[in-house]
Amino acid sequence: MLSSGLTLIFSMMGVLNFAHASFYMLGAYAAYQVGYFTGFWPALFLAPILVGAIGAVVERYGLRTVHKFGHVAELLFTFGLAYVIEEIVHLIWGRAPVDYRVPASLDFTIFTIFTTQYPAYRAFMMAISVSMLIGLYLMLTKTRIGLIVQASLTHPDMVEALGHNVPRVFMFVFAGGAALAGLAGVLGGNLFITEPGMAFAVGTIIFVVVVFGGMGSLPGAFVASLLIGTIQTFSVALDYSFVNLMHLVGLEITSESMFYGLSTITLSQLAPVLPYMLLVLMLIFRPSGLMGNRET
Amino acid sequence: MMNFAKNNFIWIILVAVFLVLPHVFSQSFALSLMTQMAIAMIFALSYNMLLGQVGLLSFGHAVYYGLGAFFTAHLINWIASGVIWMPISLVPIFGGLCGMFFGFIIGVITTRRPGTPFAMISLGIAEMVAASALMFTAFFGGEAGIDTNRTAGGPLMGVSLSSQIQVYYLVVSWCIFSIIGMYAITRTPLGRMANAVRDNPERAKFLGYNPTRVRWMSMTLAGFFAGLAGSLYIINYEIVTFETLGILESGRVVLMAFIGGIGHFWGPIIGAILVTFLQSALSNYTEAWLLYFGLLFLVIIMFSPGGIAGLIAKHEPVMRANLLGRLVPSYAVVAATGAAMLLGFVSIIEMIYHVESAISGREPMNLFGVIIDPSSSVNSWLVVLFLFVVGTTFFIKSTRIVGKAWEDLGPDLQSKGLL
Question: From residue A284, how far is each of A207, A231, A291, B357, B413 by CA, in Å?
Fold first, then answer.
């Protein structure tokens, strides 16, 4: 669920950002730090703004210099940036997880489905991300700002000729992307755990979602993130393996037969690999992704 | 004979340097460091076959390296248990073939599209392999990894690999073989086509070459050398864990190739030497080495996309024109101000780290031979901050002096026809 917010920006920025997950982490840490002084609610607004500002600075003084060397250099730049941000987080907050918690006002059960309690905080999280997504989608497709942003990505020269400051547009897009990642961090950091390794944990899965949904496609990224989230959650819960499947069909696989070790791997063991397997399958059968149309 | 020596001057030097080095630095630390460097060289060069020659930015190159290492580990264990027989010294070939095999298989999927999609797909595959490494414990040994005994094969012509020096010479001979081999590949029609595909795939297509196939073949070959490097890794360390094919290892090779410079064949060699050295030497002194490392990487990408090799190559025409002397004063100024800036910066970082760490935070620390106590004395912070700010200000000014010196050189270089 969370990654959907992250991925949308990915596709809009045109620049693939390895450090995006790092901004997510920065968001969580910033919320912890701001929340330490002001409480959760102001932090919810302040932390994304802070992260967005950091993003703007990075774009202005880092990425713009690299931009002229092409896409590969930009990608590598964000790759190096991810290292540096992680180390700076080590430097400021240390290596251990920080104590960033769900606010007490949201720490109750909202409803119960079959003995499973659904915490109110998750519902709150969902509400914020969905409204954010809808807002973003509307802004990008229906308003003048969205028009300029989209045009700057596809036809930068033309937009510049029409009198818009394209580098500044890029800077704001990047800052906005970083701020949204920061917001995701604010929301996710207390639900999961706020530690220096958290960027690394979500970083690669976002890439899968982007490729899976189709690069440059907003709805594709949304559907893909939902899909991958559900698949991962459910496969963890299902304890079936190939042996069980064969058993259903009437075949018994015993420990003597070939590939026994391979066929006893249950679906839940497979869960971490599943997204990547899906990715590879997708690339074989439909290289442009679920809803993508851009062939780059 | 004279001609041979003249034409292969650089290779002869290379071999000589490799042979002489262990006699110059004979401590065991230096020896194992040099062995690691040689392995890293092969690995970085094989990576550059993709990034530098074909323009494929891969974030999963450690997959071939790691798989080669695991395969070799099993091979050595089979040799030890007498299932098969072969000298351990030749095992790297099979590690290489293993890497080649996986490069071939994975290449089918990944080489379809260049550029950013390739980078992301390679990352996805790397993650997949790394995640499955923990699942298939029979082959990958789970968390503990696989360990071997490199002396198991018994001595072959007096080489038993029981001492580090023998391992060094084994690794180095494979390294020389690989460097020459990879250099030779850049000279073949395939190597030339790879460059063409990197620069303009459409045009290469018009000439009747299939860019995808050229990428695929390069990927296969790069897989071979990466697997070979992996084999040498296992012979050197005698243990391999799933981390060897993980994303961090892949990241390391990106850093090596890029810091060294991907535009030149010998760039990754410089990068491998530097990165391995920094990693081993710097991590002994400071906790923050990864930070310095990442910053070095960023600085290189931002200001010298050709890497260190690119910087050196830039000076070649100046050297030929015998004008290098005119750059020296400006460089001296930059070096001085840069040193001040670095000293200030490093001091700040080190002091923060020192205060942060729970164990030693309250005690005085030794900073470049000066004993200070950052947790109590404000003056020490002011001094390093001052050093950093002043250093940075003058550094930025002095870079302009260098730019000026280069500009002044321009007409002279032009008149000699070297620009």
Answer: 17, 20, 15, 49, 53
Residue B371 burial by Cβ neighbours in a 10 Å radius (0-12, 13-18, 19+)? exposed
In sequence order, which ranges of B245-377 are alpha helices (DSSP H)?
247-260, 267-277, 283-285, 289-303, 307-314, 316-320, 324-356
Residue type, A122: R
Q: Which of B255, B275, B300 is the last residue of a domain?
A: B300
Instruction: Report the residue of A69, A77, A273 to disrupt the B interface, i.e. the one with the largest count of B CBs within 10 Å.
Output: A273
Contact A71 B349 (CB under 8 A): no
Residue B48 lies in a domain: yes
Residue that is written with structure tokens 């970085």 in the block? B44
- Minimal-distance CA residue of chain A relative to B257: A76
Counted domains in chain B = 2
> Does residue A44 surpass a pLDDT of 80?
no
A261 chain-B contacts, CB cut-off 8 A: 136, 138
Same domain, B123 and B197: yes
Q: In terms of CA atoms, which chain B residue is nearest residue A15?
A: B116
Cα–Cα distance for residue pair B48/B255, rounded to 1 Å:
11
**Rounded distance between C-alpha atoms, residue B240 and residue B72, angstroms:** 10
| Residue B346 pLDDT grade (very low, low, confident, very high; cuts 50, 70, 90) | confident
Residue B156's φ and ψ, nearest 5 degrees, are -125, 115
Range in A13-22, B16-25, B320-329 the model is least confident about: A13-22
At B248, list the tokens. 């961090």
Average pLDDT over every residue of B352-370 = 63
Residue of A nearest to B130 (CA): A273
Mutate which of A283, A286, A296 to test chain B, going by most B C-beta atoms within 10 A? A283
Its domain, for residue B150, covers: 2-300
How high is the mean pLDDT of chain A? 68
> Smallest Cα–Cα separation from A166: which of A62, A72, A48, A59?
A59
Residue B41's nearest CA partner among B23, B21, B55, B71 is B21
Among partner residues A62, A71, A279, which is closest to B302 by beta-carbon distance?
Answer: A62
For helices A71-93 and A20-38, the axis angle rounded to 10 degrees is: 30
pTM over 0.90: no
The verdict on residue B238 lying in a domain is yes
- Compute the distance between CA of residue B92 and CA of residue A210 in angstroms, rounded to an integer: 38
The verdict on B356 touching A (C-beta cutoff 8 Å) is yes
Q: What is the DSSP string of B151-201?
A: GGG--BTTB---SHHHHHHHHHHHHHHHHHHHHHHHHSHHHHHHHHHHH-H
Write out pLDDT tens, residues B281-304: 777 776 677 788 888 888 888 777
ipTM: 0.71
What integer pLDDT is reported at residue B357 of this predicted model? 64
Q: What is the mean pLDDT of chain B?
A: 78
- Contact flag A276-B120 (C-beta cutoff 8 Å): no
In-domain check, residue B60: yes
**% of residues, chain A, pLDDT over 90:** 0
Residue B195 located in a structural domain: yes
Q: Which of A63, A5, A55 is nearest to A210 (CA)?
A: A5
Interface membership of A53 toward B (CB under 8 Å): no
pLDDT at B341 over 60: yes
Q: What is the pLDDT of residue A295?
A: 42
Reduced DSSP (H G I as helix, E B as strand, rest coil) percent helix, strand, coil of chain B, to 5: 75, 5, 20
Structure confidence at residue B407 (pLDDT): 73
Which two tokens mark B78?
Answer: 């089979």
Sequence letter at residue B333: V
- Each residue's pLDDT tens digit, B97-115: 888 998 888 888 778 777 7
Q: Which residue of A has its CA nearest to B137?
A: A261
Q: Are residues B187 and B103 in the same domain?
A: yes
Least confident of A223-227, A235-239, B393-397: A235-239
